[in-house]
Design brief:
Oligomer: heterodimer
Shape of chain A: globular
Helix content of chain B: 25-40%
Number of helices of chain B: 11
Strand content of chain A: 35-45%
Largest sheet of chain A: 7 strands, antiparallel
Radius of gyration of chain B: 22 Å
Chain lengths: 143, 433
């Protein structure tokens, strides 16, 4: 039900993102989805990869501060109203979205939206009740 | 003008006789009234009766900030508390401030010393003294205030901050003498420029600047930009506050130490042996007249040297060279003493924060800016921006609460802070003084 996401602390200086990508490439890790949140001084890179533990290890070995969080991947029909449906479920259940990012699946043509909620279990329950399909971790790691 | 012609121009012989008389009295008083000093002297094997000449001062143990800390708050006071009429305090190294007290006589002596300082700097009765030193526990504001009143000047007790209003009042009240930190003087010059106020249109004539280290270059800049004569004054709360030493406007070269009140010594910062006049070393003070909070051989950790050449102003007091540095890592940020260990103390008190930090000091628009870089370890890292921002704000707030100085916290990646032989370089001071 849950998807493991790694996050990396990045100072705002040139070359840091390239460094992350290079380290992951060298370890043969494939990035499935990512988002970068930035402030004036620093950024947080959030990644979903095909091998979370290995990615975490190689990044740590290269001196990065890495965290692991559980998020939810939801499959959404790639058409108007797809996102609104999910967010209305959350609104009805008073669940907050901490952040989210989306990508489009190559094969099925559906969009996948990654959510970080303040109340993870409650969110899963609400989504299931509303009949929204939550993707399994493996489905996303191997997209 | 010399405020106290009789004492400030005493022939050296008479001055030294007065110093010895006062020193004997001081040691006797302290030995009797302060158990901590008595124990230290007993341990060093020296009795008040052993002080027979000024050079016997060397037999007495030093006093350090650590001694003050151990006796927090009033343990080193040498009079019954009923005799104390004023308390001041400055920031300490571990969160507890350094506390000093004054009797009525001490306040009186302090006013005399600051009147001398103002006179030496070219102020005279009838001047309008714009006092922008901070009022409060800090000794600067009230010290300067009482001295200016004693001089017979009109004091504007404006304290620090709100520069535009300061400049407006300088114009409207016709201020002639400015007292503040040298960096604040430059900040006032910047704001004047913004406001299109020509310093030449003001009545300002001289400025007496202290409470932080500054340089000859900075003096020239202040003098040119504010169209005044800039005078260096020196003091520290442990010894009195401002009014320990001051430049004379005649030479502006070295600060006359008011030697009838204080004995300055320069010691080798490693061996603590006294060094000859003219040699650089750590400045040490003994207070000769102070009643509530006397100190014996207080190590300032400031580096200076004694100039014993006669001065054209006529004062017979030796001069100390302007402070050229410190023997420890103390920083002075906007007039406030800051030790890296205090920053570390704050960081260590926040759960998960490791003591990997660096303090970067700069001067922007003539004001000191302190940035504290903190390495983000896994313990404090979060995938949410708001969590990290909240942490940064919390550190900023706690540093401000402890030190009274605002800073900017910047979160940095691990290992970005320069380490040399396992020891991190804690302070980068980019201020061009």
């Amino acid at each position: 039900m849950k998807v493991e996401q790694i996050s990396v602390f990045l100072e705002n200086k040139s070359g840091r993102l390239a460094e992350v990508a290079t380290v992951l490439a060298a370890a043969g890790i494939n990035i499935r989805a990512l988002s970068l949140a930035d402030t004036t001084d620093f950024g947080i890179l959030r990644l979903i990869v095909n091998d979370t533990e290995k990615a975490k290890q190689v990044l740590k070995d290269h001196g990065f501060t890495v965290g692991k969080t559980e998020v939810i991947g939801v499959e959404v029909a790639d058409k108007p109203g797809g996102l609104a449906e999910i967010l209305n479920v959350m609104k009805a259940n008073s669940i907050n979205v901490e952040y989210m990012y989306a990508f489009v699946q190559k094969s099925a043509g559906n969009a996948v939206i990654i959510f970080r909620f303040d109340e993870l279990e409650k969110a899963i329950e609400a989504l299931q009740k509303a009949g929204i399909r939550i993707m399994k971790g493996e489905e996303i790691y191997s997209v | 003008m010399i405020w106290n012609e009789e004492f400030e121009t005493l022939p050296r012989e008479a001055l030294e006789a007065l110093q010895l008389k006062r020193l004997k009295n001081l040691v006797e008083r302290v030995y009797t009234a302060v158990p901590y000093y008595r124990e230290k002297m007993d341990k060093a094997g020296v009795k008040p009766t052993d002080i027979k000449s000024l050079s016997d001062l060397r037999k007495l143990p030093f006093t350090t900030k650590e001694d003050l800390r151990l006796n927090y708050p009033f343990g080193l006071f040498a009079v019954p508390f009923e005799k104390v009429v004023r308390i001041h305090a400055s920031s300490g190294t571990t969160g507890k401030p350094t506390v000093v007290g004054y009797t009525k006589n001490d306040i009186d002596a302090w006013a005399e010393l600051m009147a001398r300082t103002l006179s030496a700097g070219g102020a005279h009765p009838g001047d309008v003294v714009h006092n922008a030193y901070g009022y409060g526990l800090f000794t600067g504001g009230l010290g300067a205030h009482y001295g200016a009143e004693r001089l017979g000047a009109a004091v504007i007790p404006i304290s620090g901050g709100n520069s535009k209003r300061q400049i407006m009042l300088m114009q409207d009240f016709g201020s002639t003498v400015l007292m503040c930190t040298p960096s604040y003087a430059l900040n006032l010059a910047d704001v004047m420029k913004e406001m299109n106020v020509d310093p030449k249109s003001l009545k300002l004539r001289v400025g007496l600047f202290g409470a932080e280290p500054w340089s000859e270059n900075m003096r020239q800049e202040i003098e040119a930009r504010l169209n005044i004569k800039a005078i260096d004054i020196f003091g520290l709360s442990e010894v009195m506050g401002p009014g320990v030493a001051s430049e004379c406007i005649e030479e502006k070269h070295g600060l006359h130490v008011f030697e009838d009140y204080f004995i300055p010594e320069i010691v080798n910062p490693e061996t603590f042996e006294p060094v000859p006049h003219g040699e650089l070393g750590e400045l040490v003070f003994t207070t000769l007249t102070k009643e509530a909070f006397p100190v014996i051989r207080y190590r300032t950790k400031d580096l200076s040297r004694i100039i014993d050449a006669p001065c054209s102003c006529g004062r017979t007091f030796h001069r100390m060279q302007r402070i050229t540095g410190r023997t420890d890592d103390m920083l002075i940020i906007r007039g406030v003493n800051v030790f890296p260990s205090q920053i570390e103390h704050v960081l260590m008190s926040i759960e998960g924060v490791e003591p990997h930090y660096q303090i970067i000091v700069d001067r922007q628009a003539s004001l000191d800016i302190m940035e504290v870089q903190v390495e983000v370890s896994e313990n404090i890292f979060s995938d949410e921006i708001k969590v990290l921002e909240k942490l940064g704000k919390r550190i900023e707030r706690e540093i401000k609460d402890l030190l009274g100085v605002s800073c900017k916290v910047k979160l940095v990646e691990p290992k970005t802070i320069q380490r040399s032989e396992g020891k991190a370089k804690r302070v980068i001071d980019n201020r061009k003084l």
